[in-house]
# Entry
Amino acid sequence: MAEQTKTISREKTIVRTGIIGIIANILLASFKALIGLTVHSTAMVLDAVNNFSDVLSSVVTIIGTKIASRKPDYKHPLGHGRVEYLAQMIIAALILYAGITALWESIQKIINPVEADHSAISLTIISVAIVVKIGLGIFVKGQGKKVKSDLLISSGTDALFDAILSTAVLISAVILMLFKFNIEAYVSVIISVFILKAGIEIIREAVDDMVGHRVESEYTKKVKDSVLTFEEVHGAYDLILHNYGPDKYLGSLHIEVDDTMTADKIDTLTRNITAKVFEDTGIIITAIGLYSRNSSNEKLMKLRHDISEVVVDHKHIKQLHGFYVDEEKKRITFDVVVDFDEQDREGLIDHIRNDVKEILPDYEIIVAVDSDISDQ
# Structure
């Protein structure tokens, strides 16, 4: 119930902020377009076009958020949260379209220049637009951080960026009035390049979210810290988090427990861990695997320490865990986390296996390779 209330509140905040952005950008775009066409200012008209694209961006933000907030259903049991990433792609496409159009028009003006005729009114409009955009950008970006919405953060950043671009237009207008030197077309080219850059960056971020990227260490640390509050847990490893929308994660991990724990105690422990992690982080742990620990044999504990030192001494090994010795079957098993710089993983594991064999020649050595998926 609390999670549903949080989702509804987040949706309302994004929609309300989007509506404010729409109203502000329509007013700004209308004023800029009117003045720009009147004084034949290409830069100002292009800035107005950019504001109109911001209106469409706000509309996409609202629609995307509405769809993403829908409840899970039979076809989409994990919800619709990833729609927000698709909305980011649409916003990026709008920004790129505006940038390409602006660049083309700017080049045409350089080839066939048109003299701009700025007035005190036009400069006042630009100045007011700068102030409004700064205020809007700070507000929207702040709301985005508050509700963890990449859509709003991108929109707010874009608004602040627009303020910088409008400042460039203002400076070019002042230069024209004072020195009779027209640099507006060239300023327009610069504006276009920055618009394109912003669009490309948003696409890159959205693609990263959809393809899947390394989870921020902030999340992995919170989960592991929560798990390690249980005294029965001697280590938390192999954490994998799957993103299903902004701030919505499902995950799995392994924990290390004493080999003397019974099934009923393990069952209680894993249930408590799942509840604790969700309470602390909002992350749903869907599965918890187990590593058994030689808890009653000091000799084996020391052996683990000695072998760990040998293994992690290899350049591309980041961690050893899941170490267990089966004395009856004369078998040692452990996992190693290998970083992505290692090109010959099989060769590395053979080397590790041989090193351990030198310590315990009579034992079978089983080494499982884990990728460096999350921060250790």
In short: The mean pLDDT is 85. Residues 217-371 form a domain with the Alpha-Beta Plaits fold (CATH 3.30.70.1350).
